[in-house]
């Protein structure tokens, strides 16, 4: 099954983020810019979310078959079409296209929303809005495209920054939060989660124990541990360890920091403890991971 629109789009992208490596944003999204004559795309189901950002000045006719239902509409500048993962979709357009296609990996979106924004997303992740207009989000998409087009040493840095801007805007406006009734009848809500995340962020270089987290949300340790695992799918201390490792991975991009410094900064007892935990969670060692971050010459 194709993973991205680029696999079946009838022309090659003019600009493509696929060549950008060693940045965390590349795990979250890919970005392609297309200009193609009138054509069509066969129906298919994709494992990822797709957003089509229309940059064409003149309105033009587009047909989109979506889970068996045909939509025949006028595509205007700054219109966005959102196709969630798992939706069968096919396309036909009747004029030269001028679109940015942003592909989002659902598991990484979920992780970003939880870790960076303190948002607990529903299973669908986004509101059901097959077509909407958003000039601000399209402008962020253009900056994302242009960061790739620079084609120099700054491209990766700019892509990382603009990818974050784009995703934060998208999630804050259109992210579908988990209903409180699903979140264990409000026994553990997004407010509780944000308090836990804030505490872990503020104390990442220190020892954190279960009682600390439970006190932060005003629950007993046993009750907190139970509801946290039911909602988040892992125990509180597993969450803390995975957060420490994720932050360590970010710090490893700074080649001036030693692995020993990173270990202490992220709350590990020593480098040996860091290495052991890192390998348990990622399947590789910190040294091997860092060597893969270094660009080849």
From TrEMBL:
SUPFAM superfamilies: Homeodomain-like (SSF46689). One of its GO terms (molecular function) is sequence-specific DNA binding. The keyword Ribonucleoprotein does not apply. The keyword Transcription applies. Keywords: DNA-binding, Transcription, Transcription regulation. Residues 194-292 form the HTH araC/xylS-type domain. Signal peptide: none annotated. PANTHER family: ARAC SUBFAMILY, HTH-TYPE TRANSCRIPTIONAL ACTIVATOR RHAS-RELATED. This is HTH araC/xylS-type domain-containing protein. It comes from Litoreibacter roseus.
